[in-house]
Write a structure and sequence with these properties.
about 375 residues; globular; six-stranded parallel beta sheet; homotetramer; alpha/beta; three-stranded antiparallel beta sheet
Chain lengths: ~375, ~375, ~375, ~375
């Protein structure tokens, strides 16, 4: 079975309510980073703004909890901190056209079976059945590898396990990874794996403690800092395999966001978290599927900036799938509780997930 | 790589301490179910009792928290509730021979690499690497299928998932299951799967809710109760596939222990939990490997009654491996906290574990 | 502020649908323990059966997942295993009167503010605010102490903590406990506390390990078994304080249900879990409030047998409140997932809950 | 009972091993941010460096995973990223004097009962007894209020709960809080509480959803950004109560570290996480007690930068106590797994902890 995109039904702007709606109001920013009174905040759904009578424009490259700025040729969805004096911000908190703003929550609903098939369910637990979710994910990823943009969000657990680390490196090489969002820990543990074949001083496969192994973590950071960058360390053949190596050699972009937990850090890290957000959003705004594993911090961050829809190269509206994989009901349910897009969750160990995913994709291919 | 049994080094009874130790004292039970003052309680380790000078006898078929009764030809390890008036119970709380009792905690330790290879580690978390554990488990199970006795302890989660249910049914047919310990829920959910292709009224694979599906659970119980037994329901071709079907058709014994959560119950259930314990221990006392998944109640119960060693048919002392698989650190660490035998834990979803295990065993076979 | 009972609005049987409904059908049981085809299964809600035209009778002392038996003067709600040949069982799976059966799900809803105030919410997490829940619970328990029946369902965690164990003993003496449902572990750990001032061999307050302390657990069981009963051990002044002591001295009934995890067991334990269920239901069917802490097994068991309503001595229908207190979202949400009555959950440590509860009740009293 | 500081036994430098040890070697940094080969990495323990024969100098204001730089009059403990060209870094990975470096792990051990009383225990679970821990904590905080420096590390859960938010505000006013380390979320939720009496749009106490309440979070951020700072918002009487208000009015410093999850952010946030680390360390290096609640990110960050000892104003070495309070065994045990200082953990809800703590401190005071 192959995946096919669910259809999208745009709003019917000919209904009395919408055809008689006023145009949207835009108010200028007076002070950098501060929105005008009554600003409209975005959701994860497609939102349309009536710019002139009958001209309803969709805000592309959206995300939730931002404001909409009228630029010359398009609507920009901006974080508050990125507002500049004079920016024209949409105001109005009604969502059904009353103020020229229409939030379209049901665009993917309808008789379309494929939509139903991939319908998001909430409140999953460790006892939920996940067989169909795996099968659908295989189909989806095969589709997205060629026709979409798959963003991975990874916590460090994957780098601690020999098989999971290999599986993800393999997924990169097979083309299933179009961007990686992670932190200093994932990259550092992975690079330690290549330099020392350990993770935090323990052999990756055999898990035996190694003499002076507790220095490996810091030595890895110091080595890469001396080399100047991960790229440089690869060029110098210090790093010869692993996740970061696979990314660089396959030309897959990554964003490593800093956090207050970091040692080192690695040279490529974004020390400023808001610059990191901007860099991450560059990828989530292209994403057609996001898979987030074993990290609450990065998963929620990515969830916050991922809309429920995006535009295909042909300009069609299509859904963005968001998978979150974690061991804890609390973690996976947090996304929906916080108003992030409804996420499809799988409750399991990130290591098993990765190994199972690679196998499933390979079985389909063979 | 193939598994080979770690060697066992018996105690050296020629040391001054042990060669001069007194014989063990046995005191009669005065009242059913009550041990005499100063009784000796068993551990999970091999324990030797000096019955006459120089004659140190190992208590076979042991388990922890029981007392040792001197029978005509052997030492019996009995639960307090199974003591009968006149039973001769070993007394003495010293464990190094001072009272003729020697608890041998280091029998499997030593230079033997295989012992080290399978050394138990404690305090595992979701971030522990498990690659080597899976590989060792494949080796172990291949060995135990032919030369051991593999007891499974299962919570109901496995029956909720299409692939995991199939995987375990397949493991039964492939000979990797020699006994199953479970509760009313596992069997009832599995039988519902065969009768209705649902679990608690939801389609097993597609997870769609079915009309009147909430009746399936009770209808299953009522149907089997009407048939008289699971065996009878299979004979009447009411049940045609699934875990219970595979067990019965493969002649694999099972114990279904009752609990206060039960509906129904199924006819085969042990309503009396102490009879259930006796029935369970019949299998754990033969076990060479126990694998417990996704149930705290049954896992701890089985852990309590599983010793760390057993005798091969040739009379050699060998270790008993105990794997516990669960989503929660609290659950898997509870066994060791409570003094059960040190367990090897894997933190993951029982469904993924089952599917991964079957695949790994098959890859070895091919 | 004081608690006052929310009103109950009975169904309006004069509506066309109900006034033209047929009478309910009752079919005899042919075989002990097996319900007739098409039996009606109960829910947690008030259910009415039209016995003769215009005579709609409420099933009192209900619980979910049972069948309704027509007795001489009343409707009995029976577990399948308790059905006897000839019992007349209500059949019909329509719930809106079509088959003379009406399930009344909205009896406590409506404009009543008190109902809203105590409205149940689902999907609570560790980050939910619980201040109001505590305050409402203080009010509720003060009301129920005198005018209700408060059933506690306790896991052993409470007995491990010095302050929590004292707090619950105090609640018993203050009249806030009308029945206790628990297992062998709770009672045994508590009795060990009185005999040895330890829990599993560790000092209750100072948590220091005590020499030979691991024997305390088994010695406690053996001591009580020798005495013959907890009552006897109290009479002999072996047990002088603690939870079990407070229960016995205050004349508060308790049910100790056996499980396959049990050592011993204590003499009062119900070894047969279905007899235990019957004994437990004797109290849950009287309950007006149930508080379940730190035990999945007993909480789900109690939840299964607790209806959402009961009758006051004056014959009024009133709600039954069910609180579940646990550390894990998975545990507290399991009740609702399984179709048990909607539970009000508090995510916290049972020890802190108990200590906080006692303080709150005392502050109200002073 | 009152707390008294455990004694500290310095190393005996007259032993043959230490009296014949070489002086420590210091090697210059060649490149900013890169340590020389063979650098020595710090632990959480007191570490002494022999600068000239017989002159062993303790590194003050230490933390783990840093390097030691020889400055004019003292030893500086620096993060790698803060190394400057020419800095003289201690090299040597032996810890028992062989290279002039001595790591003193047993300074607080010994016959001292108070040390034992406050001994750290590992592997705590939700079933651990915490009565004595609370009592010791009351004593400790009373001591530290006047003679120590208490640093709090808080996740946002405390601000969601009416009583917990009040309790912590009260603790600030009573002098038990000397610095607060937190993130954008804690401050924003707390300020929303003051502006709107809601948390994420839900009434703080009654938990009722409020119309347009989902705008409160963003409106709060926008309001404070417009005001320019939290201080300014207080001066303008926009913010009149709550945690941030209490901190500002009591002159208690705080560090709000940014993360990639942030909306807004608030003006005071450190967008650069390494500047945030520096700001945090300014307080953890003074800390005598750290209490971290309900945040993995900030708890681990603070744990990484908190040593196990500090110097009193009189120059005495004393322990630093580190409490971590969380709902999850995984979270609280992560600190020790990662090599942070041994933490004393309490498994409970942060809200109950806060309320219980305030009550306990007040009872001691009265």
């Amino acid at each position: 079975m192959n995946f096919s995109l669910p259809g999208y039904t745009p709003p019917d702007f000919s209904t009395p309510r919408l055809s008689t709606a006023p145009t949207a109001t835009f108010t200028p920013v007076r002070r950098h980073g501060v929105a005008p009174e009554g600003y409209h905040a975005t959701t994860v759904f497609p939102e349309y703004f009536q710019l002139s009578p009958g001209q309803w424009v969709l805000a592309a490259r959206s995300r939730m909890d931002c404001v909409v700025v009228l630029a010359e040729k398009e609507l920009l969805v901006k974080e508050f901190r990125n507002l500049r004096q004079g920016d024209l911000v949409a105001v109005g908190r009604s969502e059904n056209g009353e103020q020229g703003i229409y939030v379209h929550t049901q665009g993917f609903a309808g008789p379309d079976q494929l939509d139903d098939k991939f319908a998001f369910r909430s409140n999953r637990t460790r006892e939920t059945s996940f067989s169909i979710d795996y099968d659908q994910l295989y189909q989806l990823l095969d589709h997205e590898r060629d026709q979409g943009f798959i963003v991975w969000v990874l916590g460090p657990a994957v780098t601690f396990d020999h098989d999971a680390r290999e599986a993800f490196s393999r997924l990169i090489k097979l083309g299933y990874v179009h961007a990686l969002l992670a932190g200093n820990a994932l990259a550092t543990h992975d690079l330690e794996g290549s330099l020392f074949e350990t993770a935090l001083g323990q052999e990756l496969y055999h898990k035996r403690a190694v003499a002076d192994g507790h220095y490996h973590h810091l030595d890895t950071l110091n080595t890469i800092r001396r080399a100047g960058s991960i790229q440089a360390a690869i060029d110098q053949e210090l790093i010869t395999e692993g996740i970061m190596h696979s990314l660089v050699c396959s030309g897959v972009p990554y964003v490593l966001a800093g956090s207050i937990r970091d040692d080192g850090p690695l040279p490529e890290i974004f020390g400023d978290v808001y610059q990191a957000q901007d860099a991450m959003r560059r990828y989530t705004s292209q994403a057609t599927t996001v898979i987030a594993l074993a990290t609450q911090l990065h998963t929620i961050a990515a969830g916050n900036m991922t809309p429920s829809y995006t535009l295909t190269p042909q300009g069609q509206v299509r859904p963005v799938y968001f998978y979150s994989v974690d061991m804890s009901e609390f973690a996976v349910n947090k996304l929906s509780d916080r108003g992030s897009l409804t996420a499809k969750s799988i409750l399991t160990n990130a290591q098993d997930f990765m190994v199972t995913l690679l196998r499933g994709l390979r079985e389909r291919a063979s």
